[in-house]
Amino acid sequence: PRRTASGFETERRALFDVASARSAKSPTVAAKVRMVNQNPDRILDAPDLRCDFYLNVLDWGSKNVIAIALGDTVYLWDAASGSIHELYHCTEPGDYISSLSWAADGVHLSIGTALNQLQLWDTSRQSLVRVMRNDYGRIAATAWNAGMLSAGSKSGSITNHDVRVRDNVVQVLRGGHTQEICGLRWSPDGRYLASGGNDNVVNVWDNTGTGVHKYTRHTAAVKAIAWCPWHPSTLATGGGTDDRSIKLWNVNHATRDSLISSTSTRSQISSLQWNSNHRELMSSHGFSDNFLSLWKYRSGELTRFSDLKGHTERVLATAMSPDQTTVVSAGADETLRFWKCFESTPRKKGRLAGNVSKLTTTLR
Fold it and tell me: Which one, out of 28, 61, 197, 301, has a CA that is 20 to 30 A from the CA of 120?
């Protein structure tokens, strides 16, 4: 047993057995702020989690199953039953998992690899449905829009695949980025695709593949991208170490500059998650804070009101539970931390099923 910083005893449980701060100063929220549990609900070991800022290897599907890549292997963890399954292992020398993304049905999972292979899996049968080649390098970011799967590459191009048809490549979007794409998200209404790259650029494309906006106000790589679910024309983007800002954009704005606001976080931003129940935004951070922050969203402005500390190295990725109550964070300290920091609505009562004792299963 180990004593955490909060002073309570907990055992670090192995999620998978594979082959082997400071807070930024911000204005005080004038309105009454809800209390947030600042301790993780549970802590799980995630050995061999690749420490690469640009990858996207964690996702939580609508069927309450978490997909995560540890080393060269994709694992599925059922949050309801606690069961663990190994789905796929890279076999080619030098290959590894670089992106994971659940389709809306929570059954089909896309896997992108370093050797530019894009796979589609039916997880209910644990079977490979098809393999789609991408000729433009490592696939570090993918995003779904119904039957359309968009894949961002090392070269800066985006390939849109219609996974329902034999000739799956619908179009290749070029010219928006000059370096690797590390962030990719479709808007909730399916009208826009936002892409962020290591060239510090954010592009917004419409669903015909036409470039609508090119935002160049960030001064570092843009991996963190999130569309506001209750206002689908509002886009949040977060910059890397030399930028450290969250910017909000109105993509419906007719002028070139559709910036709503820019908020300094004083730390590298690795991911952003909107929460509809509370109309809040969560950000995760690397250098130099290594924690998660909660922001209240009002009238286009963000105000930080809570920091969730615990990771000892940078936070690489986060994912939201289907009921919108819990966020899981993956850190370079090779741990997953579950933060039950959002209350459910009356119609969405529920919690992660099971208990910590169910998570002692190992695969070694």
Answer: 197
